[in-house]
Write a structure and sequence with these properties.
By secondary structure, this protein is of the alpha+beta class. The protein has one domain: Fe-S cluster assembly (FSCA) (GMP Synthetase, Chain A, domain 3, 2-Layer Sandwich), CATH 3.30.300.130. The chain is about 35% helix and about 15% strand. The chain has five helices and three strands; from the N terminus they run H-H-H-E-E-H-E-H. The chain has helices at about 10-15, 25-40, 50-55, 85-95, 120-125; strands at about 55-60, 65-70, 100-105. The protein has a three-stranded mixed β-sheet with strand order 1-2-3. Helix 4 links the parallel strand 2 and strand 3 (about 100-105). The longest helix has 15 residues, at about 25-40. The protein starts with 9 loop residues before the first helix and ends with a helix.
């Protein structure tokens, strides 16, 4: 690499990202409220919420305040596979200011216990 090539740092990358139509303060509030909503959803077989279990892979909020969530389950054959996406969508729809909510179920990468937060590990005595 030549010395005259510019390298991109975090500030430069942020400058290249398209600006959000949502003011930062509102985006922060929406993000916090969405996480709170996700933490209200529990896998019926595990006494820990889906967020702390690490089942939420990605949350995107569009400029129109529509929310797309990529999530997984602890196992593909989980008995709540048919109902969990709607439970998650309903919880996030309850957040003030959120538009449409779409939940995408994925098993790539597969979930494993390393995705759990410390809070989840404590609740499940998995330290």
């Amino acid at each position: 690499m030549s010395d005259d090539m510019n390298t991109l740092d975090e500030n430069t990358l942020a400058d290249l990202a398209p600006p959000s139509a949502i003011p930062q303060e509102e985006l922060d509030r929406l993000s916090d409220d969405i996480v709170t909503a996700l933490k209200s959803v529990y896998d019926p077989e595990i006494p820990v919420d889906i967020y702390e279990l690490g089942l939420i892979y990605k949350v995107d909020v569009s400029d129109d305040r529509d929310v797309t969530i990529d999530m997984t389950l602890t196992a593909p054959g989980c008995p709540v596979a048919g109902t969990m996406p709607e439970m998650v969508a309903d919880a996030v729809r309850s957040v003030e200011g959120v538009g449409d909510v779409k939940v995408n179920m994925t098993f790539d990468p597969p979930w494993d216990p390393s995705r759990m937060s410390d809070e989840a590990r404590v609740a499940l005595n998995m330290y």
